[in-house]
Amino acid sequence: MTTLAIIDGQVLRPDLTVATADVLVDQERGEILEVGPDLAGDADETLDAADSLVTPGFVNGHCHVAMSLLRGYADDKPLEAWLQEDIWPAEGELTPDDVRVGSELGLLELIKSGTTAFADMYFHVPEVAAAVEDAGLRARLGHGIVTVGKDGEAARDDARTSLEIAREYDGAADGRISTAFMPHSLTTVGSEYLEEFVPEARNAGVPIHYHANETTDEVAPIVEEHGQRPLEYAAEHGLLEPEDFVAHAVHVDDREIELLAEAGTGVIHCPASNMKLASGMAPVQRMLEAGVTVGLGTDGAASNNDLSMLDEARDAAMLGKLAADDASAVPAEAVVDAMTRGNANAIGLDSGRLEEGAPADFAVIDLEKPHLTPPHDMVSHLAYAAAAADVRHTVCDGRVLMRDREVLTLEEAAVRERALEAAESLSARVDE
Ligand SMILES: CSC[C@H]1O[C@@H](n2cnc3c(O)ncnc32)[C@H](O)[C@@H]1O
Ligand SMILES: [Zn+2]
């Protein structure tokens, strides 16, 4: 057994209390052996956490990591225009190599901001999976299906690809990669394809993840065409099961909140993307009160425009108060839970908790910063004050991915260089 000890840190426990302790990890099993005093002993490797907070690694519940290549490509438009006029034409030019380098760029940012696990919907998923395997993170990946604008054969091919990817990659990278069947949304995938393929996804034993109720423009056509609210329609098509999770859920009514709570389907709230695209304010406090599992996600870097879960936590708390017109709504504890254990539960990964027997996924945050002084309340600091640049070390599955801000599993300068070239070449191709 090889061991790693994270020593002298302030450890954030599952009940959100903080204790000065070491954390001892079995690196082969990727598991926490013990949390307690004086565990450095003869550990094979140590990580200094003095004057630092040791937290569960952050979980990003909804991302399109390769879209890092499109950061700043198109801003200041609402969802529909942004996708139709800018993003989809650019994505039409993306090669598998572009997706690989865009993923590596995004993974660098995830590691540097303390994220150890994420859920991702995109295409050229084998490239995303290869990047995840090498970078050392944990992920739930899927191929996003869009059937609108395609003939029947092309549409069925797309849905079949999502199913095949889900089957083939589940358990890849020594179990760090799991998968889901991923229809893009309830308006971009026709009901006939849901009826045909959802039962197959259930047979494959994978969850289903999709964008839902993101804008009023997305709700209206379903109400008009089917005479039902989108999540009633989703339930009728077998898309609201306890293992499933939806992104956004901005425009949900009371009945839909009740459906989510009854079904146990997770909601991944994406406040930065919702604000930037002016999609609306999700009723997060109402969903929490109804018992919905609420996680947090960044969405892609083209609509955020970063992948920091610390930023997302702050945005969620701030926007949640504004939406509820109540300063006590969406408190610090709720967002810290949502970015760790809540998210892990929502996307079906065993992560987000720092205790014996749990997966060894951590972020170590430097507290010796003016904006983190004084140390009244670590949960408050995580929700409101800490930033990506405060993350010192990141560990996933017992492996040190970043030590003292040096990423060990990706060559940062080389990835940036390749990303610059790929982005330049992509822009030129789109402009041709
Ligand atoms: C078919 S792969 C995933 C697909 O989703 C697009 N996308 C990125 N952000 C959003 C969003 O906020 N709502 C809906 N769709 C989004 C992305 O560009 C890919 O095409
Ligand atoms: Zn999205």
From TrEMBL:
One matching Pfam family: Amidohydro_1
GO MF annotations, alphabetized: 5'-methylthioadenosine deaminase activity; metal ion binding; S-adenosylhomocysteine deaminase activity
Cofactor descriptive note: Binds 1 zinc ion per subunit.
Location of the Amidohydrolase-related domain: 53-400
Catalytic reactions of this protein: S-methyl-5'-thioadenosine + H2O + H(+) = S-methyl-5'-thioinosine + NH4(+); S-adenosyl-L-homocysteine + H2O + H(+) = S-inosyl-L-homocysteine + NH4(+)
Cofactor: Zn(2+)
Ligand binding (substrate): E91, H184, E214, D299
EC number: 3.5.4.28, 3.5.4.31
Chain positions recorded as Zn(2+) binding sites: H62, H64, H211, D299
Record InterPro entries: Amidohydro-rel (IPR006680), Deaminase_MtaD/DadD (IPR023512), Metal-dep_hydrolase_composite (IPR011059), Metal_Hydrolase (IPR032466), MTA/SAH_deaminase (IPR050287)
The entry's keywords: Hydrolase, Metal-binding, Zinc
Family of the protein in this entry: Belongs to the metallo-dependent hydrolases superfamily. MTA/SAH deaminase family.
Cited function: Catalyzes the deamination of 5-methylthioadenosine and S-adenosyl-L-homocysteine into 5-methylthioinosine and S-inosyl-L-homocysteine, respectively. Is also able to deaminate adenosine.
HAMAP family from the UniProt entry: MTA_SAH_deamin
Protein name: 5-methylthioadenosine/S-adenosylhomocysteine deaminase
Originating species: Natrinema zhouii
